[in-house]
């Protein structure tokens, strides 16, 4: 059997809290509506903290909270009234912290405005304002180079934000990245990068391995931590991206085991843990994915998301079988698969920086292990069943065929 490795230093000294966390992105407006106005809100998120704690989430990434971009005079320090108030955010922060969960915010920055010194001061003051209220970190959005072409302003803005955050200990700075290396240097200031390359990979063993190696090498070079996520709000959920229906769901479940077996941090986009597909777009000209609200319980839309009548985002009646209520106690459900993967990931300490070792595998398959974790992940992305590697199976994305792994299936072995 062939064996290669990608070296990663294991340094616990100075490790940030984010390096061993499982981030859960909460689209606040589509998560849970507490006041029956048809829009999810911060109180709704607070009501569901017990669910997030139960399934194993220990860091929340809130999107859609701030009413305006930071860096403009008089803006960037207000909560969108559609989702709540500063008081409701403070209550959510306090209760999340009491439950051992960190909370980070999406931070929109208008890169065209930050060239002005007055706006730079506003940006710094906004960062101090939110971190002073207990926000544990920020995911910077609307940066040139992260959501657009890389230019010098990318590095200038990130350096400015990094300098402001360094005034307070352990405040995380993250961003969407599609490669950490630029013609103007490394994005050294980012603590974590939600790497878009992994969220766009096809269900192909060769491509998956290539992207994993590339992401690990890039993050090593600048000491940042990769966040492995299978989808973002701009890209389809994995069930849809991998073909839809039972076929797409099987592949999404298999890729979840690959995702949770990698070193670094993990990002779960809300609804992915339920295996939800995209729903039908109300506007077929839009290129954005269609995301219905989270289905919590019951047999009819909107499945406990809100008590308000009518006018919902697309929420297929077929989601009745995918609600949190329907999956929570089903040991074979996609939600249970995610819960088990999170628990085993912590038990085997996969999150720490370590060496990824790739093993020889049949064509269309891959197998790897993180040093000292003692857990091997094997994926069959081929069209035929393959022999199971040596070891005891501790988690499987689908049923095995005796000692063989069927197509579209992944296993964890010790």
Automatic annotation (TrEMBL):
Residue ranges annotated for the Glycosyl hydrolase family 13 catalytic domain, each copy included: 25-327
**Pfam families, alphabetically?**
Alpha-amylase
> Highest taxon of the source?
Bacteria
Instruction: Tell me one GO biological process term.
Output: oligosaccharide catabolic process
Region (Disordered) residue spans: 269-294
Q: Which GO terms describe its molecular function?
A: alpha-amylase activity
Q: Which InterPro entries match?
A: GH (IPR017853), GH13_cat_dom (IPR006047)
User: Which Gene3D superfamilies does its entry note?
Assistant: Glycosidases (3.20.20.80)
Protein known as: Alpha-glucosidase
- Which source organism does the UniProt entry give? Actinopolyspora alba
């Amino acid at each position: 059997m062939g064996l290669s490795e990608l070296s990663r230093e294991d340094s616990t000294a100075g490790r940030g809290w984010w390096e061993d966390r499982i981030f859960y992105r909460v689209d606040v407006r589509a998560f849970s509506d507490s006041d029956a106005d048809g829009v999810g809100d911060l109180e709704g998120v607070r009501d569901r903290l017990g669910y997030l704690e139960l399934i194993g989430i220990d860091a929340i990434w809130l999107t859609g909270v701030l009413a305006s971009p930071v860096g403009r005079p008089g803006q960037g320090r207000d909560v969108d009234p559609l989702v709540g108030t500063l008081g409701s955010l403070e209550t959510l922060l306090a209760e999340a912290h009491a439950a051992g969960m960190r909370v980070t915010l999406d931070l929109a920055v208008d890169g065209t405005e930050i060239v002005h010194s007055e706006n730079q001061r506003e940006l710094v003051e906004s960062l101090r304002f939110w971190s002073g209220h207990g926000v544990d970190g920020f995911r910077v959005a609307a940066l040139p180079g992260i959501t657009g072409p890389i230019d010098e302003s990318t590095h200038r803005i990130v350096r400015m934000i990094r300098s402001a955050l360094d005034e307070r200990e352990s405040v995380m700075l993250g961003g969407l990245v599609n490669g950490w290396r630029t013609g103007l240097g490394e994005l050294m200031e980012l603590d974590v990068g939600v790497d878009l390359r992994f969220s766009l990979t096809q269900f192909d063993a060769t491509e998956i391995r290539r992207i994993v190696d590339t992401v690990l090498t890039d993050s090593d070079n600048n000491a940042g931590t990769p966040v492995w996520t299978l989808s973002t709000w701009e890209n389809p959920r994995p069930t849809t991206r991998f073909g839809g229906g039972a076929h797409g769901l099987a592949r999404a479940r298999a890729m979840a085991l690959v995702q949770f077996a990698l070193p670094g941090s993990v990002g779960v986009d809300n609804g992915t843990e339920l295996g939800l597909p995209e729903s039908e777009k109300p506007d077929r000209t839009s290129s954005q994915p269609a995301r219905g609200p989270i289905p919590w319980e019951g047999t009819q839309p909107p499945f406990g998301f809100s008590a308000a009548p009518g006018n919902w985002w697309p929420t297929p009646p077929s989601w009745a079988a995918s609600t949190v209520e329907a999956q929570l106690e089903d040991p074979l459900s996609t939600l249970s698969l995610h819960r088990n993967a999170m628990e085993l990931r912590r038990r085997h300490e996969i999150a720490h920086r370590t060496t990824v070792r790739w093993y020889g595998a049949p064509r269309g398959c891959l197998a790897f292990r993180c040093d000292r974790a003692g857990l091997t992940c094997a994926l069959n992305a081929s069209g035929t069943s393959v022999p199971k590697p040596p070891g005891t199976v501790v988690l499987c994305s689908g049923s095995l065929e005796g000692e063989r792994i069927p197509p579209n299936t992944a296993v964890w072995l010790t």
